[in-house]
Write a structure and sequence with these properties.
Helices cover about 50% and strands about 15% of the residues. With about 350 residues, the protein is α+β, with helices and mostly antiparallel strands. The longest helix is centred in the first third of the chain and has 35 residues, at about 65-100. The chain starts with a helix and ends with a helix.
Length: about 350
């Protein structure tokens, strides 16, 4: 019987059914609800949104919305991190296999044209122009880094306008930092509903996909070489990664979610998680698309908010506040003092 009821509620805590929404909201407002109220919504118990009141087992008390939100954000972060690790491994492998060929053969097609190494910006540009002209339905892009420079946006404007003129739909993924660039906002306004943009704390390296048949990815850190990928399995894999990141990303027109921790911004929460993983300031700045100076300013504010006098103590405070991804969500000592 319980199994049949569960099948009627195939969802997670991120999208409650209408009945579950009503019961959980009532429990939060009143502090608890009778167990009979939850009989029609077993999803609330299965998702640990309600649990028995230890003082009276006939009643159910709610898990705090802040704890639920922290749990959801942690899940999103884990999914994004795993996708980034898998794409990083795939790109590294592709570079390694490309490097096995003779140097004089790098510009030649590999595997019957499935993968081609483009050496030099002019060759990359020519291949991109060719793919743009052949594109008829969709372009997917991942744009790492921070605020997009005006020259970058202007350089690709003619291709974007040509695609829009043919009715091609475009979806772009950026880091959250890109939201602060007026140039990008102006560009998207010019493109109208032909382009949809979303953002994440971190994105993978640059990726451009045309009609789900050809992909372009960097082949070196300077981005003076690129891989043109037409191998169907590889392209399908890259599309899958993009779609997963897209589902986790936040529309550019929507505000970033609140962290649920007073005095700590969404970006500072991301920095805290990366600090907890042991990354240096420069690495954190690069992954989030901000400058090292800005990163250190956020770290200083984190230290002040959490009452940490040193980096070592900051690590402890981050763990106590549940910002390290442990999901414990304990209040920091700085906040305990105000209780």
């Amino acid at each position: 019987m319980a199994g049949r009821r569960a099948e009627q509620h195939p969802h997670g805590a991120d999208r409650l059914c209408e009945a579950g929404d009503r019961v959980y909201s009532r429990a939060v407002r009143r502090g608890r609800v009778p167990r009979t109220d939850a009989e029609a919504v077993p999803c609330l118990l299965e998702l640990a949104l309600l649990h028995p009141d230890p003082d009276d087992m006939d009643w159910l008390v709610p898990t705090s919305p802040q704890e639920v939100m922290t749990r959801l954000l942690r899940g999103v972060y884990d999914e994004v991190s795993e996708s980034q690790r898998r794409v990083g491994s795939a790109v590294a492998a592709a570079k390694w296999y490309a490097g096995l060929g003779r140097l004089d053969a790098l510009a030649a097609p590999v595997g019957g044209g499935a993968v081609r190494v483009l050496d030099g910006l002019s060759r990359i540009q020519a291949a991109m122009d060719e793919a743009t002209q052949a594109c008829t339905t969709e372009v997917l892009t991942v744009q790492p880094g921070g605020i997009r420079r005006e020259d970058e946006l202007t350089e690709g404007l003619h291709r974007a306008l040509a695609l829009r003129g043919r009715g091609v739909r475009m979806r772009d993924l950026y880091t959250h930092v890109a939201r602060h660039g007026q140039g990008l906002l102006n560009h998207l306004e010019l493109m109208g509903d032909a382009v949809e943009a979303r953002t994440l704390d971190e994105v993978i390296d640059r990726l451009i996909l045309f009609d789900r048949t050809v992909a372009f990815i960097p082949a070196n850190t300077e981005r003076t070489m690129a891989l043109e990928v037409r191998q169907p399995a590889l392209v399908e894999y890259l599309v899958t990664v993009f779609e997963r990141l897209w589902r986790l990303a936040i529309p550019l027109t929507a505000p970033l979610p609140d962290t649920g921790i007073e005095g700590i911004s969404h970006r500072e929460q991301s920095i805290a998680a990366l600090l907890a993983e042991g990354h240096q300031d420069a690495v954190i700045a690069e992954r989030l698309g901000i400058s090292v100076r800005t990163c250190r300013a956020h770290i200083a504010r984190l230290s002040e908010t959490l009452g940490a006098a040193s980096r070592t103590q900051l690590g402890v405070r981050i763990a106590q506040a549940g910002l390290d991804g442990s999901g414990r969500g304990l209040p920091s000592p700085a906040r305990d003092a105000s209780l």
